Amino acid sequence: MEGLYLEDNQLVTLSERVGELENLKELYLRRNKLEAIPASIAKCENLDTIFLEDNQLTEAGFPEDFGKLSSLKGLPLHRNKLTKFPPQFARLTGLEEIYLDNNQITELPEDFCSLVLLKEIGLGGNNLTSLPKNFGNLVALETLHCEGNQIEKLPKTMGGLGSLKFIYIQDNKLGKLHSCLGRCEKLEIINAENNCVAGVAKRIAELPKLRHLLLANNQLKALPDCIVKSASNLRRLTLSGNSLEATMVKNLERRDSMVQITEGDGDGEEEEEAEAAAS
Asked: What confidence score (pLDDT) does residue 224 get?
């Protein structure tokens, strides 16, 4: 058996016999009531993805040997009851996608960044106030979701994320878009709406592939001249709900018609990615 589908049941526990499924690659356990994963799961050495969204899992519910799942590439854990990043997860060095959205996580340890093959990270809807200082180690990262936290600033090491294309950090407490993002030359979308942003680094305006810069509902009074005067790569710029000077608004209104200066809507993620891909 390579796939086992147990979604939408009332499972509170999973049988230890799951470890007998040596060829298992995909295990679907969404929308149950699981509080723990059996230790025998470590015997499923070919397991590629385990879908655990919408359960009752805490960090205590993962056995120590969970970190032995060396083939695991996908780990969706949306809407569980995690308050910490389980330390055994740091040994899942084959992971390419991890989704911890809508839990109750307050902090990520430095060893989170040992997962250097991660391409997509979901951290939205937690209680994070910062990201690890060594976040720049995640050199394969393409998409980062951090929306709906309490993050006040980004680590400077994020400038090392040479593969990053999409960053969603709306609904936080950022005070500035730091120049470190300006070193992420593959960036196409930055969504920083609904923060406390009072400044945007000039280097961000020079990003060669930036298509969407979403800054609605912040504390901006001005923007770097290079955004106002050129911004040749932008297709969408949201600035409503700021305190921009009248002369700057007029200059923006004169910009090339290809730049859409619109009302902010931080929920348009799929549309943003589709537009960016098509540009």
From this structure: 83
